[in-house]
Amino acid sequence: MTSSEIRQAFLNFFKSKGHTIVPSAPIVVKNDPTLLFTNAGMNQFKDYFLGNKTPEHKCIADTQKCLRVSGKHNDLEEVGVDTYHHTMFEMLGNWSFGDYFKKEAIAWSWELLTEVYQLDKDRLYVTIFEGDAKEGLKKDEEAFNEWKKYVPEERILLGNKKDNFWEMGDTGPCGPSSEIHFDSRSDEERKRVNGATLVNADNPQVIEIWNNVFIQFNRMKDGSLELLPSKNVDTGMGFERLVRVIQGKQSNYDTDVFSGTIKEIEKITGKQYDGSDSKQAIAFRVLADHIRAIAFTIADGQLPSNTGAGYVIRRILRRAVRYYYSYLDYKQPLLFQLVPVIAKQFEQVFPELQQQADFVSKVVKEEEDAFLRTLEKGIAKFNDIVDPKHFMVEPTKRIGGISAFILNDTYGFPIDLTQLMAKEIGWEVDMQGYEEALQQQKNRSRAATAIDTEDWVLLHDNSLNEFVGYDSLEVNTRVNQYRKVKIKGKDLYQIVLQKTPFYAESGGQVGDKGKLIFGNEEIDVIDTKKENNLIIQFTEKLPAVIGGEVTAIVPRGRRQDIAVHHSATHLLHAALRKVLGTHVAQKGSLVNNEYLRFDFSHFAKVTDEEITQIEAIVNEKIRENIPVIIKYMNREEAMQTGAMALFGEKYGDVVRVVTIDPSYSIELCGGTHVGATGELGFFKIKHETAVAAGVRRIEAVTGKAAEDFVDEQLAELNIAKAALRNPKQLSKSIESLLAEQSELKKKLESLEAKLSNNLEGELLQKATTISDITFIGGTVEVSSADVLKKLANDLSKKANGAIVLCASINSKASVAVALDESLLSKGLDANKIIKEQIAPLIKGGGGGQKTLATAGGQDSSNFQQVIDRVKGLL
Ligand code: ATP
Ligand code: MG
């Protein structure tokens, strides 16, 4: 079976068992403060397990793009070193939400593996939870008895809490699990060593392929377990591992999931992949793996950046670059060349990559270029660290822990690269110091992001949590649940209402603020966010009485200011596609009450003429006062209207379609909008800039904010006019002012040249001789540090001597030291003199070359000391 056939067989099998097949959620997670990336198939169903939402279907199956490089699951350092952990992988899964339980789940996994995939029964091992006395949990007899129907008892192994009890996080749904492992060793090996002893023992040939979790508890904040009202099944099977065992390979990289990419890398680098444990073979695996993670996350809308999810992508990419740079001897961008191969390979399963292949390649290439430059700087830094000139005595030949850490953190050097380079010159690295520095940084970043949440206090059945804020800004309702949270050291409360007019931050639109009125007590809502699908109001305090009725109010003014910017975003998006082309796709947006920010894919700067055209189209649409029509329809229907869906968004079966003139703009969108475009009044673009490779950003204003912006600009213009005494043509008058200024500058320069000739003459006469060296020192009046430097340099040549000149320029101290070449042999060094002797005297800094160096500082009162100091050195 090919890998595509294997994937399809899984989906078909569960379809035949009454499951609905759903698409993979995006790999980048939104609306979940505990997760940056999808790391398991169940993530997108969290709300079902938490009871916040009732599932539309009780039995579901899919293949989910997962990434395990941050948080609870982080496999990054294993990837490529071993042959079965990936950064991005597909997790095949089937779920029961209160439908079937252990009996069916176990029977079906056995049927699929042994009958559909025909895996060798006596190479399969299963594990079940052995119980845990401390937790008061018993052995999972139910699973044990089900397995006994198919598997001889000696291959049903007991596992402890670590391996066989799955928890979503510190709190939340959890339960015992049952794993299925496959032994792919040769028959002789299997006879020699019993496979049962190798399960869960990190043997690369005896690996876990499938985990069945039986979610029956909820873990509370105090650590206790509550029984869940309905029992759920959550399974996850690693697709790449499954393909490997079915195709009878020893490594995931030998299957057709990766072989195309590996061939391409061989072609590009001219090197051969031999599947060994050599660094070169690891590099092949790292590249073949990492490019998938990088490409799919960028296609899902996450660009590499310096923080959060973007930083994780950047780290993966850098790891790949370091591997080809160090071990495949390839010093130019490579990864971007692999994008077309995987885009094609996954065209049928995850078409989003093929649809954006050019864009993704471009972003990847730019990142590679930038990092290759950093690497070169890092190599220079490394050479500097080990440069003997920094050592007073014989160097220790040991790179300090902090230095190794800086190489890693700032220059992206992995520690093994630093060790390798050190070894090449007979040095070593202080590994203990390095580990300490690393640990300290980890502690710092953990403290910065720590969020501490208490258990929800439930007041009412929590399944009702409805957003009514499209139509009403004020409702009477009740609090369903609330809890205290500590975010960055600040105590806040989260309140969930049965009905809420508060829009929760999403799709780029900020959350609503407003008031909750409990009797005669008013509480401010400072923000509204979603956690998965739960709408949460944030407040700084709780009312005295929370159980009764509450009036929730969103102020109309702020909401309207947000709505105009959101509708303007749609008008802008359509105008961009008209003026720049249909390659324009949204890459991010922010909509608030003051402005809008819109990021989109486009490969060149948007010119001034294009900006004018875009503004004209949007303002035209505003004047047409087009009604904004909002409809709910099913996904397929919406797509047929030509609606634009965004990559990396998860849409349900029913979508909300916002139309502003069916021939102009149709978008899937959950945001709040105006009734008709006339409400926007006027639209103006403030800035156009670059954000990343191939991504531009526009900031714009509309409504009252646009009026304010234009007023400010005009006020500024009026000030400028007044300053020039209200000329008829402002631009002409500025031009002539500039021309005049440059004329004056030229005159000044020629005057100064004459003056400094005189000055030179005067100074030459002051020359004295100290231990056979001609010395000139003095304080002079010049207009710039450059003139001072030139003067000192000229004098040193003319006098064949040592010169120190001081000047106070714009109340700052400037010093220049110049030495004739002939003095270098006497051990004099202008750079050292400036840095070590002069800079502290004038409270500043500086540097230069051995023959000429300058310093600038705050203190001009010590010039005599400066001159004496240099004199003394001779
Ligand atoms: P392992 O112990 O091998 O790391 P796990 O216990 O972390 O696996 P689960 O969290 O149970 O795995 O995930 C379910 C399945 O997903 C596993 O049985 C495995 O087949 C697959 N899987 C887990 N992590 C990875 C990974 N990094 N790369 C590829 N497949 C993986
Ligand atoms: Mg793992």
In words, what does this structure look like?
With 874 residues, this protein is of the alpha+beta class. It folds into five domains: 3-257, BirA Bifunctional Protein, domain 2, CATH 3.30.930; 258-382, no CATH class; 452-554, Elongation Factor Tu (Ef-tu), domain 3; 559-708, 2-Layer Sandwich (Threonyl-tRNA Synthetase, Chain A, domain 2), CATH 3.30.980; 760-873, Roll (Diaminopimelate Epimerase, Chain A, domain 1). It has 24 helices and 36 strands. The strands form eight sheets. Strands 1, 2, 5, 6, 7, 8, 9, 10 and 11 form a nine-stranded mixed β-sheet that branches. Strands 17-18-22-21-20-23 form a six-stranded antiparallel barrel. Strand 29 (683-692) and strand 30 (695-702) form a beta hairpin. The longest helix is centred in the C-terminal third of the chain and has 36 residues, at 730-765. The model has no long low-confidence stretch (mean pLDDT 92). It binds adenosine-5'-triphosphate (ATP) and magnesium ion. The site of adenosine-5'-triphosphate (ATP) has 15 residues, from strand 5, strand 10, strand 11 and helix 7.
Radius of gyration: 34 Å
Give the overall pLDDT as a whole number.
Answer: 92
CATH superfamily of the largest domain, by name, is Bira Bifunctional Protein, Domain 2
The tally of structural domains comes to 5
Class by SSE composition:
alpha+beta
Percent in strands: 25-35%
Helix content: 25-40%
Query: How would you name the oligomeric state of the polypeptide chains in this document?
Result: single chain
Termini, distance in Å? 85 Å
For the report, how would you describe the main beta sheet? 9 strands, mixed
What spatial form do the alpha-carbon principal axes imply?
A: globular
User: What is the count of β-strands?
Assistant: 36
